[in-house]
Amino acid sequence: MTVQTKCFIELSDIVALRFDCKKCKTITIFPVEEFRDMPHICPNCEQEFYGFHDNVTKHTMREFVKAIRAVNAMTEKGGFLFSLQTSGPST
Question: Looking at residue 4, what is its pLDDT?
Fold first, then answer.
């Protein structure tokens, strides 16, 4: 017998966005419902997260959050549920 465990998350399970600074390991968390824009620099060590003129990164993050919100609204009103399969817990 083979046993498989699969992990799924609904977009409604995503309640915050977390940014980890690669340099100093500071963690910055933004609630999805309050997210307006990603930080340009780490609030602790001022490590740049992306190039100042890199509007693609900022735009992509805003569109990602907008898509999460839109799919959540569709599933609340629609006749379907949507979830993402994850790779499962790390070992």
Answer: 84
Tokens of 86: 């994850």
Query: Which CA distances in Å does 49 have to 23, 43, 46, 57, 65?
Result: 10, 10, 9, 10, 18
**20 lies in which domain range?**
7-86
Considering its fold, how many domains does the chain have in total?
A: 1
1, part of any domain:
no
Distant-in-sequence contacts of 9-14, Cβ < 8 A, 24+ apart: 9/83, 9/84, 9/86, 10/75, 10/81, 10/82, 10/83, 10/84, 11/68, 11/71, 11/72, 11/75, 11/82, 11/83, 11/84, 12/72, 12/75, 14/68
**Residues 6 or more apart in contact with residue 5 via CB below 8 angstroms:** 88
| pLDDT tens-digit series, residues 15-57 | 999 999 999 999 999 999 999 988 999 999 999 998 767 888 8
